Amino acid sequence: MIDKASFQPPPIGRVVATEQKPATPHQFHFWTANETSIGIGAIVRVEGFGAGDSGRVVYGVVTDGFAYSDLATPLHDVVGAEGDPARAAEHPTVRQEIRLWTAAVLRQRPEEPLQPVPLGAVHVASDVDVAQALRMDAYLGGEQPTAIPVGLYTSGGLEAPVYLDADFLLGPEAAHLNISGVSGLATKTSAVEFLLASIFQHFPPHKGRVAAVCFNVKGPDLCFLDQPGALEDEDRRRYERLAVQAQPFERVRYYAPFKADGVNLNTLRTHPDLVGDVEPLVWGLREVLDYAEVLLNRDDIDAKADAFIDFLADRVVDKEFDDGFGGAHRVVTFADLERLFRSIFDGLELAGRGDTWRTHHIATIRKVRNRLSNISTRCKGLVTDDGPSSDLPWGRFEDRAVYVVDVANVDPLGQDLVFARAVSKLREHLERRDLGVDAVVVFVDELNKYAPGDGPDTYVKKMLLDISERGRYLGLVLFGAEQFRSQVHRRVVGNAGTIVFGRMDSDELATPGYQVLSPATKIKLATLPIGELMVRHPHFTQPIFVRFPRPGVLRGRDGVERFPPAADLPFEDAVVRQLVKLDRRVRPNQVKDLIADRREEDVRRALAHTRQARPQDAFAHFKKHLGGRVAAVPAAARESVAPLNRISDEPY
Amino acid sequence: MSRSWVDAILAAGVVPASHVPEASVGRVDLEEFTGADPVEDPELRVRSLVGAPALAPPSVGFLDGIEQWRVVGYAGVTPIVRAHVAAAIRLREGDRRLRTVAENADELAITRLDRLPDAVRGALAGTGVRVVEIPADDAGQPARALPAARLEVQKARAALERRLAERRLARLGSDEWLVVDGVLSDSPALSAHPRAVGVVKSHGAEYFEGPELERALTLPVLHRTSVFRPKRRGARREIYSWYLRLWPWEGNDLLYGLLRVEARAHPGTVALAPRISAWLVGERAPLATPDRRWDRLLYPIYDVESYLRARAPRDLLPAPGSRLPRTGT
Ligand SMILES: Nc1ncnc2c1ncn2[C@@H]1O[C@H](COP(=O)(O)OP(=O)(O)OP(=O)(O)O)[C@@H](O)[C@H]1O
Ligand SMILES: [Mg+2]
Questions:
Q1: Which residues in chain A are contacts of B179 at CB distance < 8 A?
Q2: Where does B73-117 have alpha helices with state H?
Q3: Which of A57, A284, A309, A639 is most open to solvent, judged by the fewest CB atoms within 10 Å of its CB?
Q4: Domain limits of chain A?
């Protein structure tokens, strides 16, 4: 202890202040030797000495650098070299030069009274200094530390772990993280993957259980989170230094809708070795109707349509219902609903009763029908008539599990629906505290698509805004990533307590949102190497640069190479595969014989029931639900959601 | 040394003053015509440097000194001057950067002790500051006392420079040269050393008349005169010298870019004069701007001076602004 305290490496710089460039409580200038390890982003410690200043310590981060010589005007260099640039290098003496740095104050000790930085000696920061400078001491130690490693601060041979405060990353004090930067170089997706691993390993026990829901919106990006990726020695070293284990996620659950055929999954994780653990994401009329607002306000907001949808949801669906023209309905599926619509239209026409039905104007009814049929055609594999829905395990979320919802290939309307429903469900359950975990990180890549700064206020945008404003109290935490922060809704990014930047586009840096950064910091951001990030966090007075290791998971790109997606299976084979997945004893030929000549929707329905029931004997269950053989019906006559009318844009 | 001795004499009754006499910048060395003997040519000639290979010593020390002074108080009408003199040698080696290898500074009180009240004299003695006296004749009249004090400051500085130079010369590396700002001939050791060069920027002393003088002072750029031997004056040692023009004077002034170089009185100097001249011409760049004397001031000398000024006590610099009466305490 004494040794440590008395060992004082020589200073590497000295604070200077002039009338033009004075030291202030928030900024100071210092010079170093020309050969120095200091650079933009370096953390330094200033020690005051002399009356009033001795014992004062100031931590700062370098935000700008200047070099100049005693050359009075450039012209004098020309004169000295007689106009020949080559001769300028031959001068017998090198001019006096200075390396002058500007640093922003991170922290002063003591904090009160807040005074200008003393004109003292400047030292490079040690591990301990970094913890002090970033105020990490408050959450690194103590009875209940809340530190989550985010990366290594690296400067001139020194390397110090930087931690985020779980209370400020995942609530309740502050929450949410936003990461931006150019494609491929900013390592946005990778950084979030690494941070999730770090959160899972370091989430403080007293905060309870945590899980993540990741929407895969781009190709195979998040499809292999359970597979180990290639790491280099440097990555492993960083993991060790950060005390995070380099490994893929242990509990990953994949969800993907079907393709239009209703049996092949709409994901790139279809390699036979992996597809087994992808759960279908299938919603029926009830699930869709609850979030019908998503479908409506993409184009228009209409109180009348809303009212009609409410009517359907409250009075019609899943109930015995009399259409008023003598027809009795029990609407469970889209097909049932379509039948109801037809009898309403037919009834109105036959009766010549004008154009209102139960106070709802026929135009409103048509509009709602259009919207609903629209979703059922555009998102066939997600929205289905064929039996019970299959959904995320609401209420049974596991600790430290990642739920990947693959919507990469889903129509934008369907993506909105998935977001809206998944996030609303998360919120409901977190509010009731019965989700199964205490906190959920929701990772939305390409946030600019879902919460754009301009354009209409869609349901999804309002919902993301709502999480970002209220989620921290619930443990509902948004991790958003996008290339251009300026394109995301201001309040969505503004509410993120932790903001991360990877390599940035210089046009983006020229937008007003980055005015607070010094020109040098901007240059550094525009040239940031892969694996380095700039982090802003409530405890850090200034942005800090850190390096992080490659995530320990298989990259999407490599994943599809190692596990090439299987070609779509013919209907029967896909059914077989799903049954085999439920029960390994199922014999393929038996299944094929059973379903030959059966209507596909019946097969799908039976399959869905079997999936839901998870019986001991899957084949028997499936067979029972499929019921007796009926005569094959020509496809044209099938009764599922009709190939409905195209979306009509006419006024009603 | 701190200002403490000044406080002590003020406490002893000296009336505080703060005055840097006008003509204190730069040195005067106006001397009478002294004459010179020819060495290289029977009569002073103009020689071109074109084609002369430059001497390129791998390491060169540059020596310069500074002086700063200020009247800090009056006992009656007798001034008490506080002076700071300093000198340094900065060595340039392979990396073309200058590093201080020798340095010395001194602080003195200049006055006339027998004109001070006992209390002040006692106070001064008690502080241990080195006291230098001006001649009794000059002490009575402030108009003469200040120039006399100034002369003492200059002498102190010259002595400091000489001591530093001689100490360095004693262990000068075999391929190391020493370039001195000013004359060599004040010092026996300097004026005899084979690798010491004096570079004189002020031309108070005149060694020629008539056509020879004209040749010397209208020397074209990148030319030098023949080597000559200034006639000995007083304690000065025998030395060889020549003029050298660094920048074209036409359009400026006769003395613009004109240096006088001194080296030991030895046949070797005549042989080396072209190479030393070419070397010094090479030292024109980098320019020693913004110093007003940049046309003659070698950058390394300027650098030594900047170094010394940066380290001089701040309270001796002429106060910026006016000399209006101070208000308050
Ligand atoms: N810590 C790291 N060190 C070195 N390379 C890394 C690191 N993290 C990620 N990479 C590499 O950087 C590349 C880009 O990463 P990533 O896909 O995460 O970027 P992105 O910002 O999400 O890009 P996009 O905008 O296209 O989605 C990947 O090839 C990845 O292997
Ligand atoms: Mg990405």
A1: none
A2: none
A3: A639
A4: 13-74+94-133, 163-281+390-559, 286-377, 569-626
Position B1 scores a pLDDT of 46
Q: Which domain holds residue B32?
A: 4-313
- The per-residue b/e assignment along A550-574, b for 16 or more CB within 10 angstroms, e otherwise, is bbbbbbbeebbeebebbeebebbeb
- pLDDT tens-place string over residues A191-250: 999 999 999 999 999 999 999 999 999 999 999 999 999 999 999 999 999 999 999 999
Dist. CA A92–CA A254, nearest whole Å: 70
Nearest to A80 among B286, B290, B300 (CB): B286
- Total structural domains in chain B? 1
Please choose, from the candidates A218, A244, A256, the residue with its C-alpha nearest in 3D space to the C-alpha of residue A149: A244
Question: pTM value?
Answer: 0.83
> How far is the C-alpha of A502 from the C-alpha of B102, rounded, in Å?
51
Residues of chain A with C-beta less than 8 angstroms from the C-beta of B287: 72, 76-77, 79-80
Who's near A423: CB < 8 A, 6+ residues apart? A442, A463, A464, A467, A476
Q: Which of A217, A215, A199 is nearest to A207 (CA)?
A: A199
How far, in Å, are A214, A308, B38, B56 from residue A345 at the CA level?
Answer: 43, 15, 128, 106
Please report whether residue B322 resides in a domain: no
| CB within 8 Å of B118: residues ≥ 6 apart | none
Q: A369 CB contacts (<8 Å, ≥6 apart)?
A: A338, A341, A644
CA B102 to chain centre: 17
- Residue B50 placed within a domain: yes
B98 touches chain A (CB under 8 A): yes
Indicate whether B328 belongs to any domain. no
User: Considering the domain boundaries, does residue B189 fall inside one?
Assistant: yes
Residue A95 at interface with chain B, using a CB cutoff of 8 Å? yes
Q: Mutual orientation of helices A362-378 and A412-432 as an angle, nearest 10°? A: 100
A541 lines ligand 1 (CB under 6 A): no
Report residues of chain A scoring pLDDT below 70: 1-7, 297-301, 353, 386-387, 628-652
Task: Reduce the secondary structure of A575-621 to three states and give it as a string.
Answer: HHHHHHHHCCCCCHHHHHHHHCCCCHHHHHHHHHHHHHHCCCCHHHH
Flag if A96 and B299 touch (Cβ within 8 Å): no
Q: Which two tokens stand for residue A73?
A: 């005007």
ipTM: 0.83
Separation of alpha carbons A148 and A198, rounded Å: 6
Q: For residue A543, what are its two tokens? A: 């942005």
